[in-house]
Amino acid sequence: MKVYAMEGIHHEDQWRYIIILSKTLYQFLHQGLFKSFGVMIPAMVAQLGCSYSVAGLISSIHFTVTYIMCPVAQRLAGRFSKQTIAVAGGCIFSLSISCVFFTQSPLIMGILLSFAGCGNSMIFQTSYAVLQEHFGDQFGSMHALTSIGLGVGAIILPLLTYELLGVYGLQGTFLILGGLTANTIPLCATFRSPCHVPSNKIQKSRYNKHSLLRMEEESEDGDFEWDNNGSVGDENDGMSSCEPRYFLDIMIKTLALEALWKEREFVFIMLPCQLLLDIIFAGWSLFVVSFAVSVGIPPDRAPYLLIVGVVGGLLTRLLITMVLRTRPHWATILYGIFTLILTTAVFLYYISSTFYYLCACSFIAGFGLYGADIAFYACLAASVSEGNFPGVLASSFFFTGIGMASSGYITGRLYDITNSFEIVFQLFGGIGVLIFILTLIFIYRQRTNSIY
Question: Which CATH number fits domain 15-193+258-447: 3.20.20.30, 3.30.2000.30, 1.20.1250.20, 1.20.210.10?
Fold first, then answer.
């Protein structure tokens, strides 16, 4: 009986350091683009003649689709190599954003950015899965390390985008950003699994209903086919595509329902926390510049609130990298602490509207927001079994997509109704309180389970 478990990560694997570099550079482009869309919202409202709610929806739809399509990307990674899926996603990602140059229709722009999200999801899901394969228990600290690229990109690209808008306009800016995202293609070519992960070329045999994500042992009756995620061969090969059972099996595998059920405590408590956190994350990232302008901050200084928040996030990433390197089991506690910091900062926005005060609030908000975001994935890696990790991760991205979709439109809609971003930010604070309470419940459940 052979064992193909991934717990024994090969420390002599040198390629994993290339993975760290590539993922860091990809994060630079991924998060920088998201922050750039927040800077572009006022230009969308002015040049496209749409409302803030529509501009918020267009700005967030790319990232909404990116996260929602991650379960499908995970499914594709089981059929093809992760490297192939990531490179194909990079091509779709770059081409779709570049094509926005040719339209001024909000509808067509939204469709093209949706296609960009489909391509980006193939990169996004693969980058996390490959990082976990190479580093195992050190995933949390390595993810925090690569997330430094998020902070740097979120500082540089919004400033670049602001300058590009003044020189080339909205369409020209999209074309240039599309060219920048083409750099994801060579980066994706490095996203390959470590050599000790079984390939999907091994002989097929029967299907084991208890191993939708990964088989760790060879059956006594025969060999299982392994896919790139460590999954067994697909029973669907001998099943008619017209049978209801076929579609049910595809849905179960794509949504990783078995993995979700096995990790139901994490799913029912922490995934809703991530959904709520992403509502705050998207709303703050997309509208903090507009909020600053609405309270009297000059438009040329307003983007600095976003940048200061990112600097706070960069600091917290360095802190989390050092802490989780030696204390990975602290991830859930850190998540609760950073959530409380975020909630406090969002409520503090209401007190004053001076530029330096708002910068201080943004720094604290960014420190808590980015810290909670990084700590969540470290918490996920520490709380769920390794075999269930890819499926639960893809589902967490799906929840993130829902949060992105709802936040962009709802935040803009609330502003259209109340004409006050201050009220919207106070609602964000209320959501933060709810996240903190749910996190305390999960910590209590973890400690109770460890005792019994």
Answer: 1.20.1250.20
